[in-house]
Amino acid sequence: MAQITLIEAVTQALAYEMRNDDSVVVLGEDVGVNGGVFRATQGLQEQFGDMRVIDTPLDEGTIAGLTVGLAAQGMKPVAEAQFEGFIYPMMEHIACHAARMRNRTRGRITVPAVWRAPWGGGIRAPEHHSEANEHLFTNIPGLRVVMPSSPARAYGLLLAAIRDPDPVIFFEPKRIYRQYKEEVPDDGEALPLDVCFVLRDGTDVTLVTWGAQVKECLEAADELAQKGISAEVIDVATLTPLDFDTIAESVTKTGRCVIVHEAPKTAGFGAEIAARLSEECLYSLLAPVERVTGFDTHIPLFRLEMKYLPSVERIVEAAERTLAAS
Amino acid sequence: MSIAAKFEIEYLQYLDQDGKETGKELPEFAKDLDHMVELYKLMVSTRVFDAKSIALQRTGKLGTYASCLGHEAAHVGIGSAMRREDSLAVSYREYGAQLYRGVKPREVYTYWGGDERGNDFADAPAHDFAWCVPIGTQCLHAAGSALAFKIRNEPRVAVCTIGDGGSSKGDFYGAINVAGAQQLPLVAVIVNNQWAISVPRRIQSGSGTLAQKGIAAGLYCIQVDGNDIIAVRKAMEDALERARSGQGGSVIEAVTYRLGDHTTADDARRYRGEQEVKDAWERDPVPRLRKWLEAKGKWDDAKEEAWKAECDDWMDNEVNAYLETKNQPATAMFDYLYAELPADLEKQRELVASLDRK
Question: What mean pLDDT do residues A268-288 have?
Answer without folding.
Answer: 98
